[in-house]
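Hey, I'm writing a tutorial for new members on how sequence and structure tokens pair up, and I'd like a real worked example in the thread rather than a made-up one. If someone can provide the structure for the chain below, I'll link this post from the tutorial.
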Amino acid sequence: MTNNLPSRPNLEHLRGQAKALLASLHASSELAAQEFTEYLPSAKGQTPADVLNAGYRLADAQSVIARKTGFASWPALARHVDQLRGLEGTWGFLGLEVDGTSMSSMMYANSKIIMDGDRFGTEGMGGDFEGTFLIDVEAEPHHIEIQFEVGPHAGKSSFGIFELSGSELTLCLGLVGFERPTGFVTTQGSGHALERLKRLGAAGKVETQSDTAARPAVAPVDFSPTPQTMVELHGEWSAIDVTVNGMTLPKSFAASGRRTSTGSSTVVKFGPQTMIDAETRFDPTTNPWQIDYLHRSGESAGQLQQGIARMSDGILETCLGEVGGQRPDDFSSGAGSTRVLSRWRKK
């Protein structure tokens, strides 16, 4: 997918170029005549004099402009520009699925994708990603090619498909090194990521039905934090690797992970995004250790998350069940388990 459009194409500006080209032709400009013979199929082989006397109209000039910028016709160019401008804005996540596994909302709750013209940037996705993208709206489903310029994948590309419907955007992307998906679905080992996005409102948050619906009351949890017995966990830790629901997350994401424990407080962040902000209960007398979090903020505020932990050669390993769910009985995270398995090294 290539074209010679400016980064923020405007259809009215392109229409103005076509009118100016036709006016130049009517003024007997040989340069304008050369443009017609080069790009307009019906003018191929004509002499400049033939072109000047052919009576070409605005639709022909528009076809010249379209073909000059890499499109087969003016309608194809117009569809491209319309869709490209429709993608502009800031998008928040409604859902994320990778390799057939649905990611916990904690992984993307504050993440954003910003599109402006043919440029994009991300926030809160375990690192800064910036670059350009190309689209092909003549393909079904529509194609998108992402070219990374800043971030862990700089200089590489990702190929995908997309569907824009009003304020919602669905992207299915092949991770770097994988082929373009053919449908809006992922399977284990596919190397594909399915992103459901919604254009952010004025408040800068995803506007969903749940925003206006009252959240159900969370039952009080009998929870006594244990600051004195958490000395093994105190300090700052860097993530080594993270597996969620059976899928090991990219190393670039894990590398942004930071875990800070002070007193009875534990905060886990990946990049700028907070995954855990909780009071912590820790029992080092059990085998394996038991560790529980009472979440203080976010969608899980007031809810309990149970886990286990162990230490070996200075590496802390934790395995957490889903919020409100059962405590894991071993250090594993298989597909469908909803467990988060992670390893940490003290800074």
